[in-house]
Amino acid sequence: MSDQDAAKARRRRAHMKVMLWSLLVIALGAMVAPLGGYVYVEVAQAQSGFENGNPRSDTWGAVREGVSGTTTVQGPEAGVLIQNGGQNWRQLRNAIAAGVMPWFMAAALIGIALVMAIFGRNRLDQPPSGKVVPRWKLWERVLHWTTATLFIVLAITGLSLLFGRAVLIPVLGAGGFAAYAGFAMTLHNYVGPVFTACVAIMILAWVRHNIPSRADWEWFKAGGGFLKGKHPPAGRMNGGEKVWFWFIALVGGLVCATGVVLDFPIWGQTRETMQLASLVHAIAAILWVSLFFGHAWIGTLGTEGAIDGMTTGYSSSEWAKQHHDLWYEQVKDQEVDASEVGLTAGKAAKTPSEGTSPG
Ligand code: HEM
């Protein structure tokens, strides 16, 4: 090999070496360079003083976990941006209040339909003779019908807030429902305290008629007359009416109390208190509506002559003897002729000769 060829071969080997080393350096560089980011973050963190994680994500993580921050706004929990109990509240509200409770209302309506189909209307055994006894005073009737009207307004508006999404949006559309829901909620919020006052007066006024007695026990044992077909003895209020009264006092009282807590968030209620109040309010209110169906049915279609006392103030002596015999014995000396007290409405105002049949 000439000297020239030997020099060429050396240069080629040298090029080869340079090329291989260059490839090695590029490959190593490609692997190591991205790690520089870590070094940068470490340096940046060290400079900024935040050495444990990203401060922004830490802050929002804490907000999400309900940790209280600092604010100039006054009030309980004002520093808590997100309260996690809201998720549990929403799930319980949708599952129990909106999901399970409607079945109680449906069961009440089905129960009424069954009783109606099996036993029919509870009719008067004797046709009204025209004699009546005083049952409810004017102020009591005004109180009862005012309370009943407000109850119905509250039931309709309250139920439309609970089921509006599912039931009313398909009918009214989202915009129509939003407008109605705003109106319904305002009405509900204003009517609630007036209704609460009516219920409180009602309880105070009628508690003396509803003290449980031995006769109530006998009344229940006879199934209120349904089971044995014979009317069990009863005083001014029978066992069933007393159950309705004490249900109003206890469960109704709970609905009213939780309603006041929700209506006036000015006593330092926390969000947890409001969530609990809202659940108890909705569940107890639906129970109340369910029982109300029974009360309204018994007072109207279910029992012949029952409505007279609450509309005219007087009940026919026949109704009084049949349904409240012990009470009739106490008031029979106040018995008068329907015409004497100017009655033109009600069962007793229409004597058999005017076409009222016993049934
Ligand atoms: C449209 C619905 C209603 C009808 C048709 C109705 C009917 C009646 C009738 C006829 C009576 C008299 C029963 C008797 O003389 O023995 C009565 C009593 C009574 N009603 Fe109603 N009512 C209605 C709504 C309500 C509501 C919403 C409440 C309560 C929130 C209520 C609470 C009472 C109470 C406490 C009594 C007396 C029972 C007792 O003291 O034990 N009613 N109702």
Helical fraction? 55-70%
Mean pLDDT: 91
Low-confidence stretches: 355-359
Strand order of the largest sheet: 2-1-3
Major beta-sheet overview: 3 strands, antiparallel
Alpha-carbon distance between the two ends: 139 Å
**Strand proportion:** under 5%
Question: Structural class from helices and strands?
Answer: mainly alpha
Sequence of secondary-structure elements: HHHHHEHHHHHHEHHE
Name of the top-level CATH class of the largest domain: Mainly Alpha
The domain tally reads: 2
In the CATH hierarchy, the architecture of the largest domain is Up-down Bundle
Q: Which fold name is given in CATH as the topology of the largest domain?
A: Fumarate Reductase Cytochrome B subunit
User: What is the 3D shape?
Assistant: rod-shaped
What is the tally of beta strands? 3
Small molecules in complex: protoporphyrin IX containing FE
Number of helices: 13
CATH homologous superfamily assignment of the largest domain = Transmembrane di-heme cytochromes, Chain C
| Rg measurement, Å | 39 Å
Main location: membrane
Protein name: Formate dehydrogenase subunit gamma
Family: Belongs to the formate dehydrogenase gamma subunit family.
Pfam families: Ni_hydr_CYTB (PF01292)
